[in-house]
Amino acid sequence: MATDTAQPDGAGPGGEPEQLPGPRSARPAGPLPAGRAGRAPRKRGERSRAASVGLHAGLLVAACIAVFPPLWLLVTSFKPKSETFSLSFVSDFTLGNYDHVLNDTAFLTWFGNSVLIVLVTTVIGVFISSTTGYALSRFRFPGMRPLMWTLLITQMFPFAVLIVPLYNLMSRYGLLNQPVALVVTYLTIAVPFCAWMMKGFFDTVPVAIDESGRVDGLSPFGVFWRLIMPLARPGLAVTGFYTFVTAWAEVAYATAFMTGEENLTLAGGLQTFVNQHTQDWHLMTAAAVLIAVPATLVFGYAQRHLQSGLTAGSTKA
Amino acid sequence: MADAVTPPGTVPARAAEAPRGARGPRRRADAPPGRLRRRLSTYWYAWAMVAPVVAVIGVIIGWPLVRGLWLSLTDADEANVERRIGVNRIEATYEFVGLDNYLDVLRDDVFWDRLGWTVLWTVACVGITFTLGLTLATMLNRAFRGRTLYRMALILPWAIPAFVSVFAWRMLFNERNGILNGVLGNGGIDAVPWLSDPTWAKVSVIAVNVWLGVPFMLIAMLGALQSIPAEQYEAAEMDGANAWQRFTNITLPGVRPVAMTVVLLSTIWTFNMFPVIFLLTRGGPAGSTDILVTEAFRLAFVSSPRDFANSATWGVLILLLLVLFALAYRKALRKQGEVW
Question: Which of A16, A63, A168 sits opposite B150 (nearest CB)?
Fold first, then answer.
């Protein structure tokens, strides 16, 4: 993917501590010609053949373990019900599971519910956390320190302490089974973390830009909206991505607040395929693949920014 | 937070202290409105920008938190809370019972069992995840063919929503038909009761959580490793340090700041990790894999009748434990001279 263009330092000064700008042709397998003609001292940054083999073997095993479960899910989704648990990779290739999931279950409704909830949460969450992050980064105002502490502390809140009172409040105001209940709830998870992270990003944008904007006659909001927001796009991508992933994959609130088949989100819907009463593994795999694909695409888009975003956010904390 | 809203009630107090700074009687007269207006005109845009977040935190975190505390002091359950049936509203009839819930929970063995397992689960998950993440990051942090490919494969578990992966693992773990037991069976080994034996179930949930958690550690640690200046390694090599010495004396201290934050975050997340256990074993067999949060969820939403008061009590206790942990962690960091 684009990772290598985004951070070429994998082979550069910071990335490879043992590598000098020496000859790179003999890289993977060590010095070939030196093998028999006496032991030439190994150059810096070159590995012995054994180290190279060990490196690749270790990484290969780890990569296989990482990839296998999702891969098996994908493979199984193309098998008919009778072959679900067969050990071969392909047996009786069929698209029937997808057909059934899409046409004979409420999957598309769940998908719609999830998309609606996640999009609204992401837009609201990113917007209000970036205004807060900007204010925290640029202004010294009364109430700033308490606010920062509150943001830090609320990140640690276990959902278990909020879920029961939230449930009772939602049921009192008739919001159970309404998308807005989940949007509001997911904001509690996403906003504190995102605001903190956006502050880290805005800290990296030079204040001189704000000042020149003010000199040219922009209001503080104009500076924020027209100058700083466009510059903070990587930060927005990371926070938006975080909110998206959190909301897309949230299980506890979605299970508790949404009941009734047409109100479920994907996290609740997937549970209906395999539970005490039904064991439709073949349908579950197809639905799981359909759920995972959008999330993986969003992840693939955002992961370029992820590493810098994480370190910026974490070291600034 | 209270300041950010500028409660109007504080105006007289401010007015009283304002004249002290003012100099003649003439200015004294219009000092009170001036002070407030000056604060408003100086800070109004900052306050306006943080207002939405303050509202969110106050209304949907602060208020429920207070209500949760209150519920934990009552005997609220499914039968006596306020609810709607059709258009009819049934008023709440639960009563204040003081600290009874807390005493009951703390006297009961269940809480201590769950707490012990939760601690073990957290330590095991974070420890293994961190070790694996750092090891893989060290292996990836060099130039070789296929690096990007390995990196992409290794962060795949992060890209897929956790609940989907958990279902994938449930399929692999399936005792009669799952592929793990299928492969073991071909090798002549008896089927392992992955999810139905208390000990194996614990191993399985930890394994799945480690699988889910390694990519985050890996990416965070790669970032940390790349921030270590290469000169340090060169100097150490000149001085004759071998690979292990370079690792313990340069790499480990170098990744420490990031590692501290990441371990703290990861501990809190694992402590509160709901989906893995809830979806993989539902806390079973017989509650042996229930951590504190899944137990609290079960009390309020799975068991019948739904016991809201007790669940709220567990929630408050969980929060207290986390706060204590964070304070201790911070103190430990302070002692070692970290500024955090």
Answer: A63
